[in-house]
Amino acid sequence: MKSLIFNIVFFISISFNINGQWYQANGPYGGSASCFVISGNNIFAGTSTGGVFLSTNNGNSWNQTNLMNTPITTLAVLDNNIFAGSYEDGILRSTDNGLSWTQINNGLTSTYINDLTVSNTNIFAATGSGVFISTDRGTSWTSVNNGLTNQTVSCLAASSTQIFAGAMAGGVFRSTNNGESWEPTSNGLSNSSKLSLAILDTNIFVGTYGDGIFLSTNNGENWIAVNTGMWGMTVYALTISGTNVFAGTSSAVFSTTNKGANWVQVSNGITSSPVISLTASDTNLFAGTYFDGIFHSTNNGTSWSLNNNGFLNNQFSSLIVLDENLIAGTYSGTISLSTDNGINWVETAGTASDINAFATSDTYLFASTSSVGVLRSSNKGISWNFVNNGLSAYVYSLLVSGSDIFAGTNYSVFLSTNSGTNWITANTGIENNTIKTMTASGENIFAGTFGHGIYRSSNNGSSWISVNTGLTNPYIQSLVGSGTNLFAGTVDGLFLSTNYGASWVPINNGLSDRNIKCLITYQTNIFAGTQSGIFLSTNNGSSWIDVSDRLINKNIVSLAISSNYLYAGNYSGGIWIRPLSEMITSVETPSSFLPLILQLNQNYPNPFNPSTKISWQSPVSSHQSLKIYDVLGDEVATLVNEYRNAGSYEVDFNASSLSSGIYFYKLHAGSFVQTKKMLLIK
To answer: Which range among 10-19, 48-57, 432-441 shows the weakest confidence by mean pLDDT?
Structure first.
């Protein structure tokens, strides 16, 4: 088990197309690197939420493949086939180095894939329903569970003649006949879950949850604990490099050169734990962490450097704009700052806890977390310190009202009158509720709970009353005020109150998705983020329009606004940016607007017949070419081949002379090269 943790269209005349486009911010980098696999000069890294990334230059830079928005647990390679096991979508295969992926689940009875391993020309999959084998490179799968008394299999390892399978709290099993039958080989093992396996010659190592590492020198007949020198006894990953064995644990990376007789910590330069994945190739060693991405060592772990260039952290939970600076919080517990609209980022805090919400006063910026309370910054997010005196650790929401700050927690509301230095409960009438969101309207403070609707306080939190008349869903995820109007987003629709919560009416006309994750207002406009994209209302919620055109990965969990841009935090797809002027006609387009990043967009529509549009943007002037290729790599059309100024462009591609099938379009712009896939159906 590698991990169980879990564009604007611009026509040279400088005018925007009303449909417009979203484009992805260039970072922040880091996050969860749950697994690796090396194929020739290509290194693939899987993430817990953001799909698969590829490096062709030894990890110096990374590019996201076309497998996105999928929790990847394991990777494997067989010949020119790359296999990705996922937490929900089964197994996917790429035969073109990640350019395209195909789901290959024929015969699988479980789509929860914990590990993949290759033995000769066979590939084995560890799932929640046992072990499966494919003898045809993943085209079909067959269950091979005879003798497996525990079929929740978490990890696999193969030698030339044997397959070993580790189970969750069920020991280790061995097969000598390609999985046709299994026998238990657990003598001496603890009952803890088995998380990782590795084989060095005749030595078999198994990493466990909480009990360290065990070694067998007789094909699994007997095991002994080999943990001298090791701490952090949950061992997520094991890998072999020459005669060295490396272990990634809950606290560090360890190495042994004497088959486990003793271990030495080799984590100098790794700034984050746990280490949940490891791989080795020649003199290169890569470590994946749960919070800070990928680290690289060229000296057997003596020292490590961060290698996250292009490796995006896609787990965004919260956003705020402060003095035109963009600040992002993640589910992996980091806070990052961008001063150039998402081009460059600096990580300013790491907490190992979800960053749930931001709030700002005249003097401070505050951030709430799921398990370590509230952080405060006095320098606009550059540095942080904890301010938790008297406060519960689980803080979901924050609200600054005048000189006071309110914190909504997993059971109550807390109040600080001295900028977070001290906190007291302010929960009369609202105790024992999870406070998911808070807002102020007039002289009133509102708290949205998860399961008991909305509460209002008219005396600065001293007491609260329930205000749910007309509210048909009590699971409140977002609250926002606009003038005298108050909007409540629930798991099943939007509601409006014009009388400070005394009564509510549903306002869902035009909302195709009613799971409202977040709300934000701009002037008289309201944006709603949902699992299916972003919606805009310009008439106080009477009607809504979808403004998600070409937004990839549409599960929106956070929104922020500057004077010119709307920012959307995607649960597993990064941060996306779009000029407000494309969506709201009252917003004046900046005369100096140019694209901030270089990006090739997905063609639209796709699939298509026979015409489609291809758009891209470049922040610098350069010679640019856009060419079309078939699946054999033969060029079939040249759409652009000339010097172009910085800007955004769109061309039409007519494929009436071509046959149905998969085609690729490749953009060269200076040193930038990117390829995307499209499908022609006639």
So the answer is: 10-19
Q: How far apart are CA 410 and CA 370, in angstroms?
A: 9
Model pLDDT for residues 237-292, shown as the tens digit of each residue: 999 998 999 999 999 999 999 999 999 999 999 987 799 999 998 789 999 998 78
What domains can you pick out in the chain, each with its CATH number? 28-306 (2.130.10.10), 600-680 (2.60.40.1930)
Cis amide leading into 590 (omega within 30): no
Beta strands in 223-343 (DSSP E): 224-225, 235-241, 244-249, 253-256, 264-265, 275-281, 284-289, 294-297, 305-306, 316-322, 325-330, 334-338
Residue pair 74/316 in contact by the 8 Å Cβ criterion:
no
Structure tokens at 667: 């953009």
- Model pLDDT for residues 32-64, shown as the tens digit of each residue: 899 999 998 899 999 987 789 999 999 988 888
State the CB neighbour count (10 A cutoff) for residue 466: 16
Which single residue is written with the structure tokens 């470049």? 618
Phi, psi of 124 (to 5 degrees): -115, 145
- The contacts of residue 160 (CB under 8 Å, 6+ apart) are 119, 120
At 290-333, the pLDDT tens digits run 878 999 999 999 999 999 888 888 778 899 999 888 999 988 78
Q: Is 239 exposed, middle or buried (0-12, 13-18, 19+ CB in 10 A)?
A: buried
Angle (nearest 5°) at CA 591 between 585 and 596: 95
Q: For 523-603, list the strands marked E by DSSP.
A: 525-530, 533-537, 545-546, 556-561, 565-570, 574-579, 599-600
Quick count: other Cβ atoms within 10 Å of Cβ 40? 10
Q: Is the pLDDT of residue 597 over 60?
A: yes
Q: In the structure, what pLDDT confidence band is assigned to residue 20 with cuts at 50, 70 and 90?
A: low
Backbone dihedral region of 582: left (phi > 0), alpha (psi from -120 to 50 degrees) or beta? alpha
- Per-position b or e across 650-661, b if 16+ CB within 10 A of its CB: beebebeebeee
Long-range contacts of 345-353 (CB under 8 A, 24+ apart): 345/26, 345/27, 345/28, 345/29, 347/28, 347/30, 347/292, 348/377, 348/381, 348/382, 348/383, 348/384, 349/375, 349/383, 349/384, 350/271, 350/272, 350/291, 350/292, 351/375, 352/291
Report the 10 Å Cβ neighbour count for 411: 15
In this structure, how many other beta carbons lie within 10 angstroms of the beta carbon of residue 37? 21
What region, left, alpha or beta, does residue 596 occupy, with left being phi > 0 and alpha being psi -120 to 50 degrees? alpha
Distance between first and last Cα of the chain = 43
SS3 371: coil
Q: Are 348 and 383 in contact (CB under 8 A)?
A: yes
- Cβ contacts of 634 within 8 Å, gap of 6 or more: none
List the structure tokens of 342.
Answer: 């998402």
For the entire predicted model, the pTM comes to 0.73
For residue 230, give the DSSP letter.
Answer: -
Q: How confident is the model at residue 592 (pLDDT cuts 50, 70, 90)?
A: very low
Say what the pLDDT of residue 3 is.
37
CA 682 to chain centre: 36
